[in-house]
Write a structure and sequence with these properties.
TIM Barrel; 3 domains; 14 helices; elongated; 5-stranded parallel β-sheet; alpha/beta; 4-stranded parallel β-sheet
Length: 435
C-alpha cells in the first residue's frame, strides 16, 4: 500500500514498518514523490498536511516522527467510542496512530526526566498508560484493529494479514532450590534464622530435604514438565547464573554440577535464555561472563534474555545486550505492576531513540507476573486468577502474543506460596479448555 509523506525519517520508517507488518500482507511502501503518488491508482495513504485526491486515506501528521530531539510531548488523552487516544489531529482517524504508536513502542517517556522506583527503575506511575488508565489493555493492538476496519471499508481489495494468537508461558529460575546445594555457611545461616524465629517444624523439613528424605520446596520441575506435556505448552526458561551472592542475587552457585545438570535437563526440552543478574546491570564484564557460562553449559550461543527484577535502563541495557549478540529480550513489562508497559501484545523491534535507529533486538512484552500479584499488588489468589484470565482474553481478542512470568518457587511446595501452584494450573486448564 503506497504512502505519501513529505519526509522519510528513521522514526517514520520504523513505525510504518511495524504497523504495516501487523496490518497488511505486503506492508507499506513509502514515497516522497508527489507525481508517483498522484499516478498511483491503488489504495493509498496521504500522511501529510494537505489532501492530494479524493480516494486517499488522509491523516495529518503530528510532528513527533519528523523531530530529531527528545522533548516533552503533549499527550493529553481523549476518548471516542470507548477507546483512548492522544495526538489528536485532522483526517480519517481521530488521532495520529503512527506518532502515538511510536511514542508508546519506543518508550519515549522513559528517556525524559522521571522519578525512579525503590529499585532505581522507571516507575510505572510516570507512564501515560497508567495515568491514562489503559495499562491493562494492549491499546496499540486495539488501534490497529480499528484502523484495519476503516481501511477495509475504504479499500475492500486490500490484502490484510491474518495473525494468530500465541500463548507463551515463561519461567525465571532465580533460586533453583530452597535448601539444597547452598553450602555449609548458608545452611548454618538458614538454621540460625529458623531457630531465632522459633520455626522448629521448618527446621525439621529442612533437615529432611538435606538428608534426601523429602523433596526441596522449590523443586517443581517434574510437575512443570508434566503440566507442559499435558496441555501441549511450549515455555521459555531463563536461568540466573551470578558468580557472587548479593542482596538481589540469591541463586545457587552456577559452578555446581547440580545446577549444570538442571540446565542441561531443560535445554533438551525447551528454549532457554540468560537471566542477567542484578550485579550485571552495574558491570558489563559480569554480563559477559554470565552469558558465556550459559553458552558453555548448553553448547549453544545465547540469544535470549530477561533482566532480573526487570531492571533495565534505556538505552544502555538494550545496547549492551545487542553488543553481546542477544537477539530476543523478554523484559518489556513492569516489575511492580501487571499490565502492558509498551501498550502492545505483539513482539516488536527495539528502536534506539538516543541514536535514532531501528535495531534487530526483538522485544517480547509480558503483561502478567505472579510476583507482582503476590509481593507488589498484594492480590489474593482469586484476584490473580481473575487478572490472568483478563490478560489472556484481551490478548486473544487481538490475536496477540500472551506472555506471562512464573518462578519455580511459586510452583513448588513452600508454605509461603501455598495454593499458587493450584491457581496456575486452574488458569492453564481453563484457558486451554476455554471454560
Amino acid at each position: 500500500m503506497l504512502v505519501y509523506t513529505s519526509q522519510i525519517t528513521p522514526r517514520l520508517q520504523y513505525i510504518f514498518d511495524f504497523i504495516g507488518k501487523e496490518l497488511l500482507q505486503e506492508g507499506f511502501q513509502l514515497t516522497t514523490d508527489k507525481l508517483t503518488f498522484a499516478g498511483d491508482t491503488g489504495p493509498c495513504i496521504n500522511y501529510s498536511q494537505e489532501k492530494k485526491n479524493t480516494q486517499e486515506f488522509f491523516l495529518s501528521p503530528n510532528p513527533l516522527l519528523f523531530q530529531k530531539d527528545i522533548v516533552a510531548q503533549d499527550t493529553e488523552c481523549f476518548e471516542q467510542d470507548g477507546i483512548k487516544f492522544f495526538f489528536k489531529t485532522a483526517g480519517d482517524l481521530p488521532f495520529d496512530i503512527f506518532a502515538a504508536s511510536f511514542y508508546l513502542l519506543s518508550r519515549y517517556e522513559e528517556y525524559l526526566p522521571h522519578e525512579k522506583d525503590e529499585y532505581g527503575r522507571f516507575a510505572y506511575q510516570n507512564s501515560l498508560a497508567y495515568r491514562g488508565k489503559f495499562l491493562d489493555i494492549p491499546l496499540i493492538n486495539y488501534w490497529i484493529n480499528d484502523f484495519r476496519e476503516k481501511l477495509k471499508a475504504r479499500f475492500p481489495s486490500l490484502a490484510f494479514k491474518i495473525s494468530s494468537f500465541l500463548f507463551l508461558p515463561t519461567y525465571d529460575i532465580d533460586i533453583a532450590w530452597s535448601y539444597r546445594y547452598k553450602g555449609w555457611w548458608r545452611q548454618l545461616g538458614g538454621f540460625g534464622r529458623l531457630l531465632i524465629k522459633g520455626q522448629f517444624s521448618d527446621i525439621g523439613k529442612r533437615i529432611a530435604v538435606l538428608r534426601g528424605k523429602a523433596k526441596d520446596p522449590f523443586d517443581a520441575y517434574g510437575w512443570m514438565n508434566q503440566l507442559h506435556e499435558q496441555y501441549k505448552l511450549k515455555p521459555y526458561y531463563f536461568f540466573l547464573l551470578a558468580d557472587k551472592r548479593g542482596k538481589y542475587d540469591k541463586n545457587i552457585s552456577p559452578g555446581l554440577p547440580a545446577m549444570k545438570s538442571l540446565i542441561e535437563d531443560h535445554i533438551i526440552r525447551y528454549p532457554t535464555g540468560i537471566h542477567p543478574s542484578w550485579q550485571s546491570g552495574d558491570d558489563e564484564n559480569i554480563l559477559r561472563t554470565e552469558i558465556a557460562r550459559l553458552a558453555d553449559i548448553t553448547g549453544n550461543p545465547v540469544v535470549a534474555s530477561r533482566q532480573h527484577y526487570i531492571r533495565f535502563t534505556l538505552p544502555d541495557t538494550f545496547s549492551k545486550l545487542i553488543a553481546h549478540k542477544i537477539g530476543f529480550d523478554f523484559s518489556m513489562g513492569y516489575g511492580s505492576i501487571n499490565g502492558f508497559r509498551a501498550s502492545v501484545a505483539s513482539p516488536f523491534y527495539w528502536y534506539d531513540l538516543k541514536n535514532e535507529t531501528a535495531t534487530q533486538l526483538m522485544l517480547f512484552p509480558f503483561c502478567f507476573m505472579e510476583a507482582n500479584s503476590f509481593y507488589e499488588q498484594k492480590d489474593s489468589q482469586e484476584q490473580a486468577l481473575k487478572d490472568m484470565k483478563h490478560y489472556y482474553q484481551v490478548v486473544r481478542e487481538v490475536n496477540g502474543t500472551f506472555i506471562m512470568i512464573w518462578h519455580n518457587s511459586f510452583l513448588g511446595t513452600d508454605e509461603l506460596y501455598k495454593g499458587w501452584r493450584e491457581t496456575y494450573e486452574a488458569f492453564i486448564k481453563s484457558s486451554i479448555s476455554g471454560t
